[in-house]
């Protein structure tokens, strides 16, 4: 489910809950909305409001951590690709084919996007990314070092290419991660209950309705941001491809 759709659904749920509360207000007997009744409602909803605030805070912290980790992974991947290219350049012209394959891998990654769903897809004659990096490793293994220096550089290049491949598989394995949907569903139920009590106690005038509308929109916006940041390679709030683009400009240079 897209983040925009999720935010829209949350807004609809909260607006519907508020409307139901206002409808119930007009049909309940007066003694159900006495000052004593309202005090009890406020005390009860204060507990739910506190739990909702804590749950939303935990979701925001989790999403922010996921986004920050993805940003670090992007920069680390770009740095490892550059390091691999420079090690192969130091080895000599024998690594020319491997360096071209590495550049094509980055170009394909930028064109496809940095997601678990697209990295292993074959597109026409293009291989999946794991096959690209394995082709680079195959070229490196086929080298015949002439001295100890080239042997060290070959070993180092294989180590770094292994780390690049590890980054890819970590992305694939973590691609299904995101918001804990059960946790989010409970949170939306709590928020709906709160907004229903707001509607139950609020007089139906334009000012109150406008404020409740803005509050529902704000909460839905927070859920949208949490959902978008929890999937940092897609959506509106995404990790920048700038490190990979910068690395691509440096690949293949002598």
List the helices and strands and how they pair.
Elements (H helix, E strand, L loop, with lengths): L2 H25 L7 H57 L4 H17 L3 H4 L9 H13 L6 H26 L7 H21 L4 H24 L12 H9 L4
In short:
With 254 residues, the chain is mainly α. The chain contains 9 helices and no strands.
What keywords describe this structure?
254 residues; rod-shaped; DUF4239; 9 helices; 77% helix; transmembrane; DUF4239 domain-containing protein; mainly alpha
Explain this structure.
This protein is mostly helical and 254 residues long. The protein has one domain (3-250). 77% of the residues lie in helices and 0% in strands. The protein contains 9 helices and no strands. The radius of gyration is 27 Å and the shape is rod-shaped. Mean pLDDT is 82; it is low at 122-128.
Mean pLDDT across the residues is 82
- What composes the largest sheet? none
Overall shape = rod-shaped
Please tally the helical runs, counting DSSP H or I stretches of 4 or more residues.
9
Along the chain, the helix and strand elements come as: HHHHHHHHH
Fraction in helix: over 70%
Task: Measure the end-to-end span.
Answer: 46 Å
């Amino acid at each position: 489910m897209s983040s925009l759709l999720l935010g829209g659904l949350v807004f609809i749920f909260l607006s519907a809950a508020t409307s139901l509360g206002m409808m119930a207000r007009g049909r309940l007997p007066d003694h159900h909305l006495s000052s004593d009744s309202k005090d009890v409602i406020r005390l009860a909803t204060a507990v739910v409001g506190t739990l909702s605030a804590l749950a939303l805070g935990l979701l925001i912290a989790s999403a922010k951590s996921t986004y920050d980790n993805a940003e670090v992974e992007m920069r680390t991947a770009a740095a490892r690709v550059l390091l691999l290219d420079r090690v192969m350049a130091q080895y000599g012209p024998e690594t020319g084919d491997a360096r071209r394959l590495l550049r094509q891998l980055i170009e394909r990654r930028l064109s496809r996007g940095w997601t678990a769903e697209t990295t292993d897809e074959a597109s026409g004659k293009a291989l999946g990314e794991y096959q690209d990096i394995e082709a680079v490793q195959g070229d490196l293994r086929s080298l015949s070092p002439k001295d100890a220096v080239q042997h060290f550089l070959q070993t180092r290049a294989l180590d770094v290419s292994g780390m690049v491949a590890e980054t890819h598989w970590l992305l694939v394995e973590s691609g299904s991660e995101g918001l804990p949907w059960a946790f989010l569903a409970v949170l939306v139920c709590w928020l709906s209950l709160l907004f229903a009590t707001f509607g139950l106690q609020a007089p139906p005038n334009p000012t109150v309705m406008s404020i409740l509308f803005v509050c529902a929109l704000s909460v839905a916006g927070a859920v949208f941001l949490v959902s978008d940041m929890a999937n940092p390679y897609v959506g509106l709030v995404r990790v920048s491809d700038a490190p990979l683009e910068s690395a691509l400009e440096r690949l293949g240079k002598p």
